[in-house]
Amino acid sequence: MDAEPIRAETRILIVDDIPDVADCLAEFLTLHHYNVRVVHDAKAALRAAREWAPDCVISDITMPEMNGYALAGAIRAVPALSGTKLIALSALSDEAHLRRAADAGFDLSVTKAGDPAELLGVLRMMEQIKGMAMETQQLARQNVELAGQTKELLQEVKEEVREIKQEVQELKQDVEELKQQQEGSER
Description:
This protein is α/β, with parallel strands linked by helices.
């Protein structure tokens, strides 16, 4: 049984210097309801990421001029892209690569020869986390609104308590005056 489709607004930038690999992955992800763009070198990827602000960048590692590690570092250096998830999609899978990918800023490494369902699972989990973050932000806004309303209500209650205290004080004075009048009339 397949999980529910991912929302189309999830933007994924695919970076691979081999067009057939990038295009096949793009087609696969498009079929799973992702909004996908493809570039074939790291410098174009950095420009596209700055302009488009993808939710996720899936990048090959071994590319000419600028490799995927350098791309990850460059993306991590752009404050506007701090929430972008980075996935290394590479034929490399040894410990040195995994450590270097993590150090460069990749959130995850997936091997090209691996099961595409693994990548889909990661993307679905990313989408769920994004949804929970949006819900959390909405709840935080509601909490701020409720806190403001609570503050207003507390001010109203304080004002009413102050008025009641004033009325009680006045009643005490009236009672005291009545007592004095009664004592005066008894004499």
